[in-house]
Amino acid sequence: MSDTRKSCYAEPIIRVFPRRTKWTPTDGLAFVGEPPFFVPEDRKMPVMISVTFTWDLAEAERLRRAWRAFFRDVSIGGPACGDRGDRFVPGRFIKPGVTITSRGCNRQCPWCSVWPREGEVRTLQIMPGHIVQDNNLLACPREHIEAVFAMLANERGVVFAGGLDARLFTAWHRDLLETIAYAELWFAADTVASLATLATVAGLCNGISIEKLRCYVLVGFSGEKLIEAERRLETVYKLGFLPFAQLYRAPGQSRWGLSSGESIQRWNALIHKWSRPAAYRCSAKIPATTLFQ
């Protein structure tokens, strides 16, 4: 779904990103990498280099030196620098159409950097958007969740890209989904133990097409073997979700660190397959489920 909404910030700020992702803004003051041949004429504008991943910090420092050749006020910030995200401005550091209505998470998953950086869940002002990027929306107070869904009732193609906590998903959340036009519901199954919870969610989501049920699956954490990871991915698929495999990378690491003794090439092959539904759905080994459709 394309989104033609403009950025909602008033002050002109140059934003620089070490790499382009699907969330990177594309307006005239958003840049990826080094200064272009034609830089903005107003050299008094502040330049903010936004860094999401700690392994991009060295590149961010290099970019700061490059941009300082043209602008005096050049700073580095973002999640990789410990930014708690006390304010969300639509379109500034993430493309228009994305909204973040809360920060933090009450869980303390050992692989996650959200809770050490942002603390427990706290709500923000609800801004319009059809892509909800909250870390743990369902951990928010009920009145906030209902207010978010009231906003989403005016949107189309709603995507819960930040994920819905399967451990908190209940029948009343399922009822709320019937009030909006959603396209993708994202859950997570990062451990073997989480599969039982995901099975409960599958029952609650009876009647929802597998095309709309997605699941993040962290693999390779804490010495997990490749065969164990693939079995978990297969189980997620059999439960009626389209899995999206994500290989664990520790904060600050410049390369993937795996302790299972298996080659990175084999893990890359696993990720390549299990991050592309077209690849794993055509596999004769895993029949597409019809249990919850």
Describe this structure in words.
The protein has 293 residues and is an alpha/beta fold. It is built from 8 helices and 12 strands. It is globular and about 55 Å long. Mean pLDDT is 89; it is low at 1-8 and 288-293.
Radius of gyration based on Cα positions = 20 Å
Largest sheet: 4 strands, parallel
Named at the architecture level, the CATH assignment of the largest domain is Alpha-Beta Horseshoe
Q: β content, as a range?
A: 15-25%
In total, how many domains does the architecture comprise?
2
How many helices in DSSP terms?
Answer: 8
Would you kindly provide a brief summary of this structure?
With 293 residues, the protein is of the alpha/beta class. The chain has 8 helices and 12 strands.
Question: What's the layout of helices and strands?
Answer:
Layout: E1 14-17, E2 30-32, E3 47-50, H1 57-67, E4 74-77, E5 98-99, E6 102-103, H2 114-118, E7 122-123, E8 131-132, H3 142-152, E9 158-160, H4 171-177, E10 182-188, H5 194-204, E11 213-219, H6 226-238, E12 242-247, H7 264-274, H8 277-280
Note the main attributes of this structure.
12 strands, alpha/beta, four-stranded parallel β-sheet, pyruvate-formate lyase- activating enzyme, single chain
